[in-house]
Specification:
Layout (H helix, E strand, L loop, with lengths): L1 H7 L16 H5 L6 E7 L10 E6 L9 E7 L11 E2 L15 E5 L6 E5 L8 E6 L1 H8 L2 E8 L5 E7 L9 E5 L5 E4 L13 E4 L4 E4 L5 H4 L5 H5 L6 E6 L5 E6 L7 E6 L7 E6 L4 E7 L5 E8 L3 E4 L5 E2 L6 E3 L5 E5 L5 E6 L7 E7 L11 E3 L5 E2 L17 E4 L5 E5 L4 H7 L2 H5 L2 E7 L6 E3 L5 E2 L9 E6 L12
Antiparallel strand pairs: 1-2, 1-33, 2-3, 4-5, 5-6, 6-7, 8-9, 9-10, 10-11, 12-13, 13-14, 14-15, 16-17, 17-18, 18-19, 20-21, 20-26, 22-23, 23-24, 24-25, 26-27, 28-29, 29-30, 30-31, 30-32
Family: Belongs to the selenium-binding protein family.
Keywords: Selenium
Protein name: Selenium-binding protein
């Protein structure tokens, strides 16, 4: 990391003895309040012939531009589908004083390019530092469709890739970039690639990395078809690897209760051997844990009951858990139901017995005014009340979430992936996404919509865009890992 840090020294305003991030989760919770939020925004698939971009949103309530997009960094090419993001270094590098959290890693899911964005020189107006071209990645590793990135304590950056250049899942695996963002190769040992790729999280004290599984790019890029699930073209497994060795040690078959396991998180306490994964189609939160013999097991921790519905594509509608996170103090777990439209908060101080402590509806298929009706056990139909914010009707369903370090604010966007957005929430193509903020009661539990915060990506200068992943310049609870 030292060579990267030297490039940034001219922009440093102070010298510190520690590396980036925080020494512990407790210290992170006492960190400064977020004032900026970086959001990936997509024009791919919307019909607007503009490149995707990284939006900088002002989230400082004392600022005159609060709740506004104050900068847009457009990438050079069309059709990237900017999606997930991560940092070049995080709290895993806290012990390295030469390391610096100064670059945001922004993969293009469709194009296979990886953009490296300088956020340190001017945090309000990030600039493009480097483009890692897809041709180089394919030539050296065979990997394409990059998704999740995490920094490693070594200074390298690791990126999960969901397939080969032709979109076959068989070619998926984990890409390594060095501290200068040169392609090093694959992380996993030869012959140890998973069947499907998506998200991953590592827990060094337990010498383990676990990854989840979406599906083959040739399948999910065409839209969601339930027959593809029956045909085995989507994942239902977790892959347990040795860390940092890269050997596939165990495959956990989650079965029908774990179909489409997407976002995966360990507890933030690095000594803990417990984590969760959100199974989207099954609409279950699955807890995984280490056994005394060092093998891993899993069990369903939370189930969202499918609703009987009218005027929809199926007679029953799953919640569709497509994202979740855990507060930095490991007290609360939050997840969204992209179809049903609610955001939930659970107390997980006893991870075996989560307790629902907060719930709020901010969109979804069954909101009042929709043609879709849910039917209760008594045979009566109903719809959910979804309030307007600053006169705006909430579109789509909640999709990505990000939490403040202190756990008091939860940010929510509503675009999953352009192809699936078009299929399930076509109005987003014409009206765009929005960004909301929920106030969180961290004492007793509870969620409430902040009526003073609303970012309308339907009002962007070049037309409505789709907003997805969110990051703070100082790190957050879904990118920082402690070792």
């Amino acid at each position: 990391m030292a060579s990267v840090s030297k490039k940034m020294q001219s922009n440093e305003t102070s010298c510190c003895k520690a590396g980036p991030g925080y020494a512990s989760p407790r210290e992170a919770m006492a960190g400064p309040r977020e004032v900026l939020l970086y959001v990936t925004c997509v024009y791919s698939g919307t019909g607007t012939q503009k490149p995707d971009y990284l939006a900088t949103v002002d989230v400082d309530p004392t600022s005159p531009t609060y709740s506004k997009v104050i900068h847009r960094l457009f990438v050079p090419y069309l059709g990237d589908e900017l999606h997930a993001t991560g940092w070049n270094s995080c709290s895993s590098c806290h012990g390295d004083p030469s390391a610096d959290r100064c670059f945001l890693i922004v993969p293009g899911l469709f194009s296979g390019r990886i953009y490296v964005v300088n956020t340190k020189a001017n945090p309000k107006a990030p600039s493009l530092h480097k483009v890692v071209e897809s041709e180089e990645i394919v030539e050296k590793t065979g990997l394409a469709y990059p998704h999740t990135s995490h920094c490693l304590a070594s200074g390298d950056v690791m990126v999960s890739c969901l397939g080969d250049k032709n979109g076959n899942a068989k070619g998926n695996g984990f890409l390594l970039l060095d501290s200068e963002f040169n392609v090093k190769g694959r992380w996993e040992k030869e012959g140890h690639s998973p069947n499907f790729g998506y998200d991953f999280w590592y827990q060094p004290q337990h010498k383990t990395m676990i990854s989840s599984s979406w599906g083959a790019p040739t399948t999910f890029t065409k839209g969601f078809n339930l027959q593809d699930v029956s045909d085995g073209l989507y994942g239902r497994h977790l892959y347990v690897y040795s860390w940092p060795g890269g050997e596939l040690k165990q495959t956990l078959d989650l079965g029908n209760t774990g179909m489409l396991p997407l976002a995966i998180r360990f507890l933030h306490d690095p000594s803990k051997d417990i984590g969760f994964v959100g199974a989207a189609l099954a609409s279950n939160m699955v807890r995984f844990f280490k056994n005394p013999d060092n093998s891993w097991s899993h069990e369903v921790a939370i189930s969202v009951k499918a609703l009987k519905v009218h005027n929809w594509i199926l007679p029953e509608m799953p919640g569709m858990i497509t994202d979740f996170l855990i507060s930095i103090d490991d007290r609360f777990l939050y997840f969204i139901n992209w179809f049903h439209g609610d955001v939930r908060q659970y107390n997980i101080e006893d991870p075996k017995n989560p307790k629902l402590t907060g719930q709020v509806w901010v969109g979804g298929q069954i909101q009042k005014g929709s043609s879709v009706l849910a039917e209760g056990e008594d045979g009566e139909t109903f719809q959910f009340d979804v309030p307007k914010i600053q006169g705006h009707k909430l579109r789509g369903g909640p999709q990505m979430i990000q939490m403040s370090l202190d756990g008091k604010r939860l940010y929510v966007t509503n675009s999953l992936f352009s192809t699936w957005d078009r299929q399930f929430y076509p109005e987003l193509m014409k009206k765009g996404s929005h960004l909301l903020q929920l106030d969180v009661d961290i004492e007793k539990g509870g969620l409430a919509i902040n009526p003073n915060f609303f970012v309308d990506f339907g009002a962007e200068p070049y037309g409505p865009s789709l907003a997805h992943e969110m990051r703070y310049p100082g790190g957050d609870c879904t990118s920082d890992i402690w070792v």
